[in-house]
Design goal:
Layout lengths: L10 E2 L4 E4 L6 E14 L5 E13 H9 L1
Antiparallel strand pairs: 1-3, 2-3, 3-4
Length: about 70
C-alpha cells in the first residue's frame, strides 16, 4: 500500500463552509488555503507567487475545521 503525505502551511482565505451531502448525510467542510513561495530572480529581485488550494475535510475533521 502506498501513502502520500502533503503538508500545506498557509492562510485561510475565508471561513470554512460546513455542509452535508444530500444522498448520504455525511458532513464536510470546504476550506480555501493560500500558500506563498518567494525567490530571487536572475536580476536579484524578489518574486512572490501565491497558490490557492481547495480543501475538503470529511466527518469529524470537517466539523472541527468549521468550528475552530
Amino acid at each position: 500500500m502506498y501513502e502520500n503525505k502533503v503538508q500545506l502551511i498557509g492562510y485561510l482565505g475565508k471561513n470554512p463552509e460546513h455542509k452535508t451531502t444530500k444522498q448520504t448525510g455525511r458532513t464536510f467542510a470546504l476550506l480555501s488555503l493560500a500558500t506563498q513561495s518567494a525567490w530571487k530572480d536572475a536580476n536579484e529581485e524578489w518574486q512572490r507567487k501565491v497558490e490557492w488550494h481547495r480543501l475538503i475535510a470529511w466527518n469529524g475533521l470537517g466539523e472541527y475545521a468549521a468550528n475552530n
